[in-house]
Amino acid sequence: MNKLLAVSPSPHVHSGESTKRLMFNVVLALVPALAVTLFYFGVGALVVTAVAIVSCLLFEFLIQKYLLKVKPSVTDGSAILTGLLLAFNLPSNLPWWIVVIGALVAIGIGKMSFGGLGNNPFNPALVGRVFLLISFPVQMTSWPLPVESRMSYIDAVTGATPLAIVKEGLSKGTSMSQLAEQIPSHMQLFMGTMGGSLGEIAAFALLIGFVWLLFTKVITWHIPVSIMSTIFVFTGILWLINPEANADPIFHLLTGGVMLGAIYMATDYVTSPMHPKGMWVFGVGIGVLTVLIRVWGAYPEGVSFAILIMNAFVPLINRYMKPKRFGEEVKRNG
Amino acid sequence: MSAGMAIEVLSLPKQVIIPISQHIGAPATPVVAKGDKVLVGQVIAKSSGFVSANIHSSVSGTVASLDAVLDSTGYKRPAVTITVEGDEWLPEIDRSADLKTDINLSAEEIIAKVNEAGIVGLGGATFPSHVKLSIPKGKKADVLIINGVECEPYLTSDHRLMLEKADELMVGILILKKALGVERALIGIENNKPDAISHLQKVAAKYKGIEVYALKVKYPQGGEKQLIKALINREVPSGGLPIDVGTVVHNVGTAFAVYEAVQKNKPLIERVVTVTGKNLPKTANYMVRIGTPISHLIESVGGLPEDTGKVVNGGPMMGKSLNTTDAPVTKGTSGVIAFPEKESMRSEVKPACIRCGKCVSVCPMGLEPYLLNRLSQRKMFENLENERALDCMECGSCSYVCPANLPLLDYIRLGKAEVNAIIRARKN
User: Fold this and answer.
1) Range of the domain at A190
2) Crossing angle for the helix pair B157-164 and B166-180, nearest 10 degrees?
3) pTM recorded for the entire structure
């Protein structure tokens, strides 16, 4: 035996799990929602999605190659995912150059300025989205109507989102029963027949993706379930107190990107807590903040801001929400 | 892969290399000189303290040297090399296959016998067994736990032993129970070995106070603390021992060795070793004399295939990779695994931890490997101690699941060594 043997510390085997596989599974989970949005928003959805993904990839590549001078890692799938999620948070009639600016902010400021994948405190896609929302409030809050605007892009027929209708109406003193005709039914909301950003409309498609993510063990249920149950309980209490001045909890769950945010944005590995205990704190925080913004704040929806605010608390949560150490408490009940 | 292969007695090699330190604790002191004739079972190195173990010759022949040789750790360590001549055993060893069920010795005599026979934990930890049987003053055990989990994937030596030597195993357990003065013994087996579970359940019915339990398959279920938790739901406190929660854990291989020592006068001179690997011509479970060069086991299965890149002594998760197959089988060798070239090298490390939390969710000790990794890299050893780095048992689960392929355990090991040094310095 003269052959040289490799010597390395254990373990000698690996699960084969990779960052790339995780990222592509999330992208795969978003395919049903993408199909739905292409069905409702047609050309516009296609343009916005394509521009967002391509520019995210391009900016990541350029920044890594020429600014940071490191080996570009665009193939790890994270930039594609950021682009897709950014597109899902935009209206389908958004001019392409605004999408490009959003991608630059998402990748350049949201991600690369902190050191790239794994180091960013805030969800990059949401950083991009919120930047655009504040910089281009008009373009960012004109929402094409589904189906009707299928064959058009910039010139799409627009209308208010269900949440905006409710917010506007309630602030003028209109009651929920008077607003009922103007807002879509729960079934329509579930199937996605409403105005809104690309990815927020079809709850059922997003839930199919959720099942896929759980099945492939990409995420655990803790964050989505804690966010949704908090929103459900909080808005449910408000609704029980006064059903005329508050929308019902199911309406809240199905609108304004709760599903998209809870399942795909808040669960972003980098910007969410490491441990289930912390995930609950994080999720409940997002739920409470979302409802506070929606009911008492200036914006009709609030998921993006709620997630970004809670992102800032993640290091603190990780510090105090530790897993239960083995042997911490001695049980004697054998 | 090798679970279906019955235990075969491996042929004698030309020469055996028997290290004088095959256990945790002080190395034994050699009591033979070059040129001495030895018989099978003869003591060649004496235990040199309470936590130490006798070493016996596993063959008959002439002592060729007492020099240091490369052992499975990759270091040169003192060992007794014996040239094999024939196979003559000490006359007092009962080599018949008859089952002896009557236990005539008292508890003290059993412990003395186990000590004499040089028995150590055969699951891989190699802690001297008589120490575990001598319960310190003020502590009490109420249950004996027998580890039939097979500590790691790929290994099947315990599995085969349970199938083929069930009665001897049961008597061994009765002996251990008597030594500890406990009424109950629980055998834990993972339910991916249904044949072993049903067989042992049947056999256990003939003996008093032995229960067999099927456990969920979940590495590292065979970790001592995990096994205790799974079987009797007690958690060994951080830094504590099983006896702190009223139990003692022994491996099935150890129980079998205890049977042979107490009932047959046979010291620990051989053990079951699994030889396996994807591309090996065949896999096997061998009854191997201690000190047999690992190359002899490999030749017996047809030799290493061309594309072998790594040979591991032990399991895939915690075993040590060998730099030479001339290293001998020791008391702690549960298996030998040959890995093909392309599985031997670490794959490329991805640049970043994506904070997925998978390492946290798999850590059996409830630690945060990503954090320990980071603290160790930044040399923040005080923090590392506070984060309970020393509770880490190096099972390798964190490195195994890491999607970024980070060498988490490598850095944690490094950090643990530093923390241990700090603690020692504090005591002085």
Assistant:
1) 161-320
2) 100
3) 0.89
